[in-house]
Design brief:
Layout lengths: L2 H5 L9 E6 L2 E6 H6 L9 H12 L4 E8 L5 E7 L15 E6 L7 H15 L3 H9 L1 E5 L4 H6 L20 H13 L3 E9 L10 E6 L7 H20 L4 E6 L8 H8 L4 E8 L5 H24 L45 E6 L5 E2 L2 E9 L5 E6 L2 E6 L4 E6 L6 E10 L5 E11 L7
Helix pairs in contact: 4-10, 8-10
């Protein structure tokens, strides 16, 4: 029997909230909260990370290896978590793989903490659903991709190179080591974890966001389709956990210097850039929760896309996420009850309305152009923005805005479509306008 046949399972409920039946009744176990609770009060230094890596290497569900060294001689460490019986297998014989890269920028801590919390949880958990996940998915991580930058508290590495602008040339030992590791593990998807200040000068970057590969004639259709399905599922769960998020889609004309574009557009692997927000009101718990939740949803999708290829691609059936009232300390407190108040009075549905507030139909634009939609009513989950039929962005958070950079377009007319979409991405209401791009207006 093939490994795929041996591991074939029924439709697995990932259990972001897992319902467990016990002698004392029904309670909810929040896996996201359990994982986030494992992070320390302060982010790990490089020395502390190496100590944790050595500790984890002693677990029978962990494979650890040095995949390279920085110019300063610090180790670039890879850690994989899997079922204990898979530890001796070479990468090519492991179950499907999700590959995570964190902290290419030495000052961005949340990705490392999310990766280490995920590793600690899956290395030690006795939860039945979590153990079933490890039977069907290998999660491979480089939790600290820029050790020299971490040690020096700098964004760049010791050669003063921004590693996330180095993927077109792979001139640095860190990016080369990671690219070689990805080639060995052959993952079904790659996540690159980052964070940005909420006060970013770019309006598009004021929320958490995910950037991935969009539809394009030169991109394999299955890659862009897989990326789109994943973002719908991630968006759904971000809403349930009250984590605002925007979603952006790259086409093949974008520079391949960034990690997710290199793996998505050059290597043909579904790839995702996760960006959490820093600054007042964005604590480490919340930032780690964003990365953990996105990882679990994507991992769940990979399991089903691999083992249940004939299954329809609807949004996965999962238990409801805990409400904000059930999560009292950041995202670390599991819900204690699933009992709903009896005899709730139904709230009448509000009719949907959609208006494109900016810019006006027929406007001539140049530079950074804010496309702003006003959406009200019940029955939609996402707002999408498309230019001449190419999906550019999706958002779950008002104000519903997309920033169009006219530099990406030749002068001429373009059709902008804004759509309200349901849970699985089907449009339920749309509006369109026509813009004329004139790049001579840039900077005026």
């Amino acid at each position: 029997m093939t490994r795929r046949g041996a591991l074939k399972a029924s439709w697995l409920v990932l259990g972001l909230t897992v319902w467990l039946s016990g002698a004392t009744g029904v309670c909810a176990a929040d896996i996201v909260g359990d994982i986030v609770a494992l992070q320390p009060l302060q982010p790990h230094t490089y020395v502390e990370f190496i100590s944790v890596a050595r500790e984890l290497a002693g677990c029978d569900r962990i494979t650890a290896e040095r995949i390279g060294y920085t110019d300063k001689g610090r180790a670039v460490v890879l850690l994989a978590v899997h079922a204990a019986e898979h530890r001796a297998l070479p990468p090519s014989e492991h179950p499907p793989c999700l590959f995570i890269i964190a902290r290419q920028h030495g000052t961005e801590t949340a990705g490392t903490e999310a990766a280490l919390a995920l590793l600690r949880y899956f290395a030690t958990t006795r939860d039945e659903v979590s153990l079933r996940i490890l039977q069907q998915l290998t999660i491979v991580m480089v939790p600290m991709a820029n050790p020299d930058g971490v040690a020096a508290s700098t964004r760049r590495n010791s050669a003063n190179v921004d590693l996330n602008r180095n993927w077109d040339t792979l001139s640095q030992p860190e990016t080369r080591a990671i690219a070689e590791a990805v080639a060995r593990w052959q993952p079904l998807a790659v996540i690159d974890m980052h964070e940005l200040p909420a006060t970013s000068s770019k309006a598009a970057f004021t929320q958490n966001f995910v950037q991935t590969i969009g539809y394009d004639q030169t991109v394999p259709q299955w890659v862009s389709a897989d990326c789109h399905i994943c973002t719908l599922r991630i968006a759904d769960w971000m809403r349930r956990y009250d984590l605002p998020a925007n979603f952006y889609y790259d086409q093949s004309n974008r520079a391949k210097t960034l990690c997710h574009r290199y793996f998505g557009l050059v290597c043909g692997i579904p790839a995702f850039l996760f960006e959490s927000k820093t600054g007042p009101g964005h604590g480490l718990d919340e930032r780690v929760a964003f990365h953990v939740l996105g990882t679990l949803v994507l991992g769940n999708h990979l399991i089903h896309s691999y083992y249940d290829k004939d299954r329809p691609t609807e949004t996965p059936v999962m238990a409801a996420a805990p409400s904000p009232a059930q999560r009292t300390a950041g995202y670390t407190t599991p819900a204690s009850s699933a009992v709903q108040p009896p005899h709730e009075t139904p709230v009448p549905a509000t009719p949907l309305e959609l208006h494109i507030l900016k810019p006006a139909d027929g406007a001539t634009v140049g530079g950074m152009v804010r496309i702003v939609a006003q959406a009200t009513g019940d029955g939609f989950s996402y707002v999408t923005f498309s230019i001449d039929g190419a999906l550019k962005a999706m958002t779950t958070a008002a104000p519903y805005t997309y920033i169009l950079d006219s530099e990406d377009y030749a002068d001429g007319e373009y059709r902008v479509e804004v759509a309200l979409c349901g849970d699985v991405g089907q449009p339920v209401l749309s509006k369109a306008c026509v813009l004329t791009v004139n790049n001579s207006l840039r900077g005026r």
